[in-house]
Design a protein that fits this description.
about 400 residues, D-Maltodextrin-Binding Protein, domain 2, 12 helices, Chorismate Mutase Domain, subunit A, single chain, alpha+beta, 5 domains, 5-stranded mixed sheet
């Protein structure tokens, strides 16, 4: 035990302290501390002693903590492997989104700082991702290519230890999961400024896959080029949605520069990496991946620009206690039908967070409705409301119950 552990003043533990009454002076042989604290002497006023540890001493302490963290991580990994064996023996799903939510909420509630909660979530997201890889390999398909916002959302949710597979289209992501080539898929469903992604909603009309989770990604668009100079830009490439989300900025800062639509922000970055007169509207990760410089950061017109993504899989997610349920249904053409389809939820006090309609492709002027509500399909009130809804519908399909994104 060090002197400081026993309650002694920290500066006393640095070395030997000699006191002489006749000469009225202190002599300090400090090994790890410098003067910084005002000490009252009964013989000679005040003398300043610093109790700040040296850089070398602090780094040694950090190394000790890191070694302990490594030991604990391996201890955790051993427990995870045992959990994986038990799940395999009982034929249970190795990935349980509600369990991840429980871990994040428990740790952030107990966190007293100074380590920030967002950083804590990022660290444990990677720990959980690596742990899942120990239980069983997890393959996740997403709408590619790499460096797109779909890629960012997939990394944000599944971490870097999962095998992330970029595909060329939303139907291809659904197909990869349906055939069992991927455990999950990540697809965009709506943007806070540009609205729904119709391809994704249309796929649920034919697919039997379920929504397992949702991811909210705050979208920031950067203007990227090889030179990093605004005056060099003669044309701008990007996906149509980012161009629309940055239109006001582009009109004010690049009014006469042609805007070129391409398949994705990553494709735009790839094109610009070979053209010194062009710029791309893309993510920060695209800049690092394609060796581009940032001309301007965050050029989106709306500050609160979010894209919602859905994680799709074959099984219903377990109840987490803070869930959302999504439905798809088609109503009969009757007087007052809109009132009747909402009544089962209103009279039970169920909060509907979203309702969207899409044309039924097989019949003109008939529509499919998509509805999100708060709660899990296993909740009695939710189950009762859905059952009552069936009475006025041609069909009702539960798309999934899943933890609500925060």
């Amino acid at each position: 035990m060090t002197p400081s552990d026993s309650g002694q003043a920290p500066w006393l533990s640095a070395g030997s302290l000699r006191y002489s009454k006749n000469s009225c002076f202190f002599t300090a042989f400090a090994l790890n501390y410098r003067t910084s604290q005002q000490i009252q002497s009964p013989f000679r006023g005040e003398l300043t002693l610093q109790k700040t540890k040296t850089l070398t001493a602090l780094r040694l302490e950090i190394d000790t903590v890191d070694d302990r963290l490594l030991e604990l991580l391996n201890q955790r990994a051993s427990l995870v492997i045992e959990v994986g064996r038990l799940k395999a023996g009982e034929k249970r799903d190795f990935h349980v989104p509600s369990r991840e939510r429980e871990i994040y909420e428990r740790l952030t509630a107990h966190n007293q700082g100074p380590f920030p909660n967002e950083g804590l979530k990022s660290v444990f997201r990677e720990i959980i991702s690596a742990s899942l890889a120990l239980e069983a390999p997890m393959k996740v398909a997403f709408l590619g290519p790499k460096a797109t916002f779909s890629h960012l959302a997939t990394m944000q949710h599944f971490g870097y230890s999962a095998e992330l597979v970029p595909l060329k289209s939303i139907p291809a992501v659904f197909e990869e999961v349906e055939k069992g080539h991927a455990t999950y898929g990540m697809v965009p469903v709506e943007n806070s400024t540009e609205g729904v992604v119709s391809y994704t909603l249309d796929m649920f009309m034919e697919s039997e896959l379920l929504i397992n989770a949702e991811v909210l990604l705050e979208v920031h668009h950067d203007l990227l080029s090889r030179t990093g100079r605004l005056e060099d830009i003669k044309k701008v490439y990007s996906h149509p949605q980012p161009i629309a989300q940055c239109r006001k900025w582009l009109e004010e800062n690049l009014p006469n520069v042609p805007l070129v639509d391409v398949a994705s922000t990553a494709v735009a970055a790839q094109i610009v990496s070979e053209d010194y007169t062009a710029a791309a509207i893309a993510s920060e990760i695209a800049a690092s991946m394609y060796d581009l410089k940032v001309v301007r950061k965050r050029i989106e017109d709306q500050v609160n620009n979010f894209t919602r993504f859905l994680v799709i899989g074959k099984k219903m997610a377990e109840k987490s206690g803070d869930d959302k349920t999504s439905l798809m249904f088609s109503v009969k053409d009757q007087v007052g039908i809109l009132y009747r389809m909402l009544e089962p939820f209103a009279k039970r006090g169920i909060n509907l967070s979203k309702i969207e309609s899409r044309p039924l492709k097989k019949k003109a002027w008939e529509y499919i409705f998509f509805l999100d509500m708060l709660g899990h399909i296993s909740d009695p009130l939710i189950a009762e409301a859905v059952q009552e809804l069936r009475e006025c519908c041609q069909f009702v399909k539960v798309l999934g119950s899943y933890p609500r994104a925060k």
